[in-house]
Structure formats: C-alpha cells, structure tokens
Amino acid sequence: MASLGRLGDDAKRAIKLVSVPFAYAVLLLALPLAAVLLFSFWTQDFLDIDRTFTLRNYQEALGEPIYRQLLVRSVLIAGSVTVVTVILAFPIAYFVSFHVAPSRKSLWLFLITIPFWTSYLIRVFLWKVILGYNGVLNTSLLGLGFIDEPLTFILYNANAVVITLAHAFAPFAILPIFVALEKIDHSLIEASRDLGESRVTTFLRVTLPLAMPGVVAAALIVFIPTIGDYVTPRLVGGPNGLMIANMIQTQFLRLNNAPLGAALAIVAMLCVTVIALLFIWLNRKWLRSQ
Amino acid sequence: MTDLIALEGLNKYYGDYHALRDIDLTIPQGQFFSLLGPSGCGKTTLLRTIAGFEAPSSGVLRIDGRDMKGVAANHRPTNMVFQSYAIFPHLSVAENVAFGLRKDPRSKEEKGRAVGEALEMVGLGGYGNRRAHALSGGQRQRVALARALILQPKVLLLDEPLSALDKKMREQMQVELIRLQRQVGITFILVTHDQEEALVMSDRIAVMFEGEIGQMDDPETLYRRPKSRRVAAFIGLMNFLDARVGGEVSERKTAAPERPTDDPMLTRFRRQIGLLPKAPKALPEYVSGIEVEVAGLGRAVLPKERVPEALRHTGCTVGIRPETLAVLFEGEQTTSRTVDGVVDEVVYYGDMTYYDVRIEGVEKPLTISMKNLIGRPVLEVGAKTRVAWDERSLVPLGH
C-alpha cells in the first residue's frame, strides 16, 4: 500500500472503479479462454487428461478433412447469413430512418424487436413448422397450385440454417444501419439532387457510402455470433447443415475429447478473429475517409 | 434585362398552415436579389420552392421562361448553397467540387482543370486534396460556392449562407460574394434574416412576413421609404410616433429663424460692399402638400407623393430614423425645428452615441443617433436638450 499511498486521489479512484470490471473480465472472459487454450495443448487419455504439451490436436483439427470441411461450411453459412441479413435489413432501416415520421421511429424500432420477445428456440421450431415437408409453406404452395410436390430443399440443409439465422439476427443488422442512416444530414441528399443526380444515383453516391460504417458494423455483429452458432444447425440443418460448433459440442460432450474440441474452438476463434479484423480494417477505412 | 425568374400567385400549404401567400415576384437576369424576413416568414420555403425541393400548392414558377411544374431539382438550372453547406464528408474538396460534373462530357483532365479554376476563384487554390472535416466554416462555405458555380447555373440560391460564420468572417464573405456575383454575372437569390446583410449585398430586397411579401424595393428605398410599420421596424432602427393626417394645404413657408449672431445692419452693410451676394428678391415661398400633425413634434406639411392616398384624413404612424434627428449640444444653433427633451438613456458605441430622449406628449423616448465628431461631448442621462427635426425626417407608414 505504500506505492498506492503515493498515487493521486484520481488514480486511486480510477483503480477502484476499474477493479470490479477488471475482476469480472478476468473471471468470466480471460480464465475460460485460458482454460480452453490450455486444454487444446493436452490430450485425452481415456478418462484422464494427459497434461504433456503437444500440438497433436491442432494437427488433427487442421489436417482431418471433416474438420476443415465443417470450418469452411461454417464460414460460408455465416457469410451467406451476413449477406442475406444485411441486404434484407438495409431497406427496413432505410424505410424507418427516411420515411417514418420522427415521432414514430422509436415505435417502429420497438416493433422490430418483437420477434425477440419469444425464446430463440421457439423461433427455430417455428421455422421448422413453416419450412417442413408438411409445413405451412409447402401446404400453402401446394394448395395454391404453384408446386406439385413439397419442396425439400428448404429444410434440413444449409438453406434452412441461413433462413433461420437471417431472421434471428435481423434486428442486430437493422439497428446499426439505422443509426448510420440517421446520422446522415439530409441536406447532403438534397445537395446531391441539386447538383444533378437522380434518386438512384444519389443513393449510390451519397447515402450508401455514408451508411457504410453501419453496414460493416451490422455485418460484423451478424457474422461473429452466427459462425459459432450450434442450435440452429442442430435443429434445422440436417446432416449437410452442421457447422463447426456442432463438432466442438460433439467432441466435448459425446466423444469425451475435450482437448480436440478445445483445439477446434481455438482454430474457429482464430478464423473469426482474422475475418473480424478484416471487417474492422474496412470500417476504419470508411471512417477515416469521413 | 429579361425576367429570369417569374412567380405568379404562388401558394404553399402545409396542412392548414399557409406558408406562402400569393407570391408574385419577378427577378431579372444578373440581379443580386434577397429574401429578407424574420424566421418562419416563408423565405426559405420560397427558396426551396425555386430549387425544386418543395412543390407549390398553387401558382406558377417560371425560370428562364420555362414552367417548372413537375421538374425535379436535378433538372432545374438552379444550384444551391445550403445553410449547413452540405459538404460531402466522404469526399475530398476537389471531389466535392467535381460532384456535379459526372455527366459532363469533358475529359478528365479538363474537368480537373475546371475544378482547380473554381477553387482558385473562391480562394481555395491548392486545397483540393483536403478532407471536408479539415476545413473551417468559411472554407466549407467556399467549397459549397465552388461546387455550385462550377455548374454555371442560371440562378444561384443561397440559404442563409453566412449565418454560421463569426462577424469578421461574415463581413469578409459579404464583400467576396458581391465580387463573385459581379464576376460571374449569375443571378443570386439570397435568403437572410440579417437586414444589414441584405442592405449591403442586394440590388433588390423582398421583405417577407408570414408568407407574404411586405415590400420589394432597392435597399435605399427600403430603408428610407418603408411602406409599412412592420417593414420599418424590421429594417434598421425606427422611432414611431402617432400622427393625424389631414388634407391638402398650400401655405407660405415658415421663414427660417435668423441666426441671432447675424446683425441685420451688418448683413446689409456686407451686401452693399460686395462681401455677400445680393439678397434674392424675397418672394413669398409657398409649400403645398399634406398636413400632418405629429404627436410631440407638431404640425408639418409633407409633399403629396410622400403620403400614400390611403393614409389621408386618418390616424397613422410616422416613422423617424434615429440619424435624421439631432440632439442639440449647448450653444448649437439650427435652422431646423426643435423640440425640448430630456436624455433618458445613453448608449456609447465608439463612433456613434445613441440617445433616448424623452419629449413631452410621447410615451416612448425618441432614439437619436449622433456621430461622435471631434469636440462633441457625450451628454449624460438627465441632461436637458433640444431635438432638431425636419419634415424630411418623417415617414408616414401604413399598417
């Protein structure tokens, strides 16, 4: 405490303020992460853990085609979800920002969050009901005579995972894009019109570039959680819709191979980190230019 | 000069709110025209209607003889400098200026040269690569001007372009805008709530109140001969006195009182020896005009053309500009008519002093501005003084 005594009052107060969140971060973020990291260098020896340092798990995780295939599929599915979600979210955010009266905007945002009032699981099951072989969509289309036999490509595959996740993450994409659009000074849009640009070219030359930070943020917010999602692929993905997180779960709980599961988790995390850094770099680039 | 812009019976409603009321207006090519008025008077709405951002509810707007009904802002021969300047934050200064040149058939090099020239013209040569956020308010303003002028519009619309600048910068930009306008010869329409700015810059000013044009004249006429009380009150300082207007009279002019120092004998002697010119034959001078009885000051006869027909034989208001009255300092003489008063308030401005002088029969003290000439004292509150006035000071005002 002697050294603390020499610190100014401000410093003391700062330490006091910071210590609680710091302890929280260490306990809930750093420690579990460190545990996973540690596990990934150990090996499972039937019921015991062999604590000798080895890279064998990583060799297996990166070398086995099944793991690589799952990882690539996870990136592709998460990427598709991100693209679909952002493309569907943009018009909604645009509508609320530009065409809804200011006094109604918060009501609209509130309505957009309504799907969140039910549990995530229930929403996934509802999609099963909608997309199933005898589901709402198929019976409606059959009844209307658009199709002769039920569509099968909409459930128990990657498409179903993309549809379900895109719906689940829609508000997360709408909100950052909405905020970016809200920040756009409308006189900029008028200025573009005044300088001879049509509605469409104004959107492409002014509105979209200025909304880009929101789009990048939305993509990041959707991509990171979806790449590690395992409930949706488990429930609607079928055999071809499984993702890396399902394999991690299998390794930990079914195959009782926590070290390999940990190594897979670390590989997936590194993969997410690289892609996230790419997004952040993109966002920085947009932000710097403004 | 042909009329570049013609508005006929233009109306604009926002729901029940009548924002523009029967605006009739023509602006000739090359004029610096100002729309002046308090906030909420409709001047910006009118400007945005000309730009194509608002559609009039009724009436006709023609630019260069062409009806603008259904013509979108991007197809109008107008360009605008926005109040917030609206500089694109994701583009450099040069890219901002070149924004409207996308469809220009010229080559890239030629466009680049045009951008350089436009920046040069507004005094921003060499700033092309800067980002918008690295510019000061005045510089943004110049970028906005260059961006609009590079397209050589028929009309440049300026929406309170100077209101966000500090006083020094504003005065500098006023002069520069006038210079630019003379240089490019484009019709400018300026919206402002600053009467001084409008007086300094414009060839012609329309003063707007509650969606109507109160008066439209050149700056001098507007200042010296405002037609109504609200125009007079909005532009500059004005004293208002109640008055009764009578009918036409013709009477002998009241002789100016001889100066007490002028000894009649001495004057006659000087004339005889040729020191002074021979006195003109003293024919009785007659003045004819309208009789006006002004509260506190007394009776005056004003030339017929100065008193609008509608005001005759009624009670009305007479306006008097502070600089057309004078406070008489001790020992000063005047040939004007005078009235006794007591100094109520003194505001010293350096080059000028503003006195509020209370005179009998008028509730509100008269504001009088005096130049602080060498040797002229500044009176103190409570000092007794005389106020000199003249028939020419009086401006009869409608309502």
From TrEMBL, chain A:
User: What is the originating organism of this protein?
Assistant: Histidinibacterium aquaticum
List, in alphabetical order, the GO biological process terms annotated in this UniProt record: transmembrane transport
**InterPro entries tied to this protein:** MetI-like (IPR000515), MetI-like_sf (IPR035906)
Q: Where is the ABC transmembrane type-1 domain?
A: 71-279
Q: Which CDD domains match?
A: TM_PBP2
The protein here is known as: ABC transporter permease
Q: Into which family does the record put it?
A: Belongs to the binding-protein-dependent transport system permease family. CysTW subfamily.
Give the UniProt entry's GO cellular component terms. plasma membrane
The membrane topology noted for this protein in its Swiss-Prot or TrEMBL record is: Multi-pass membrane protein
Q: List the subcellular locations.
A: Cell membrane
- What UniProt keywords apply to this chain's record, in alphabetical order? Cell membrane, Membrane, Transmembrane, Transmembrane helix, Transport
Chief location category: membrane
In Pfam terms, one family for this protein is BPD_transp_1
Membrane-spanning parts: 21-42, 75-96, 108-133, 153-181, 202-224, 260-282
